[in-house]
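Morning, I've got a small favour to ask if you have a moment. It would help a lot if you went through both lines with me. Thanks so much in advance, here it is.

***
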Amino acid sequence: MKSDIPGGERHVYSVSRLNLEAQGLLEGSFPLVWLEGELSNLSRPGSGHLYFSLKDDRAQVNAAMFRARNQRLRFTPRNGQQVLVRARITLYVPRGSFQLVVEHMEEAGEGQLRQQFEALKARLQAEGLFAAERKRALPPLPRQIGLITSPSGAAVRDILQVLNRRCPQIPVLIYPSAVQGREAPGQLRAALALANARNECDVLILTRGGGSLEDLWAFNDEQLARDVAASAIPVVSAVGHEIDVGLTDFAADLRAPTPSAAAELVGPDLSLAAEQLRAARRRLVRQMQQQLARHGERFTALRRRLRHPSQQLEQYAQQLDELDGRLRRQLTHQLALHGQQLRQLGQRLRAQSPSALLQRRQQQLQGLQRRLRLPAPRALQDSQRALTQLGQRLHTASPLATLGRGYSITFLGDTAVRSVQAVTPGDTLRTRLNDGSITATVTAIRPGDTNQD
């Protein structure tokens, strides 16, 4: 749009565009923030979301906490309550109102505890107390399982119920301790030390039920976490519900989300193992029966093959007679074969003797002499006739014979003249006849006239 100011333009925003760009600026400029304030104007519509204001003595801000987040709350928010929230800053575009979207909320008293927990966790982690290489594998079939917990709590009942279902044959030993309050960290450490000193169990479960951060604070004790990491017996930490996390969870060899889950991880399902054992026993029995059957068949076969020594000697005597007969037949055959070969060699030797060879050469010589004497005169006559015929044919083809029949040869220099075009008037020609030659000078040339004088 053209501006009223010469050379300028107006940039006109729609309201929705303005709110959207403002929302983008707010969300891009602020990270997640922690805020502490008082709840007011709390509203719970049927959608399950929470809408409220967070205020202090001089200001307030609107906030929303959607259902997926507020289902994790461990308390029921109420107006006038001091809370600590972690939220992102945004703008509600339809109304253009500045607000917070809360992702986590806790009672204000937990804020300091949370900070202490994070600081202690970071320090112990930097020391390598939570390193994965320190963790040990749990025994697949423990001989006895130890529980470090309150014997009257819900956690111990849940664990015993699961273990009784999965592996009732494995005994469980409880090391009682308080799990909440000021005395709890010392009692938990003492119970852990007692379990290691007595060394009665193959695995220990350190556990209690759910509660607030303050209720679970005993399991965030620094020295307890160090004792758990140093335990000679593998430790499974199962404190509270799945969303509850304590320092012992990081220090233990394995963290279970709930006490029941810890029992599932530690106690093998012996009913399944028993069935597997029965199946293995059936397979072993079948294999033994098959082996016995095979060995029995082999024994029977060997027994049938077993004979009295006299029978064996008789068989060997018969085999010896057969071998003797075969040997005699083979020797007779070999002697006959060698005799025949000897006779053939004698004949060949006699045929190659000097007297026989000389006689054959004399016969060949006599034959050649006869062939030499008889055909010589006849061959000479044939050769003479052939020579006479060739002389006659040569004389007939000779140029001298042609000249004798009245022909002549004319030369221009040493070249025979074959055409009138080869000479010009005045040339001196030499004509060869049968009995001599004529030298003449050309006076005229008549091409093509072969009948005129």
Notes: DSSP finds 13 helices and 14 strands in the chain. Residues 309-351 form the longest helix (43 residues). The chain has four domains: 15-108, 114-268, 277-304, 400-441.
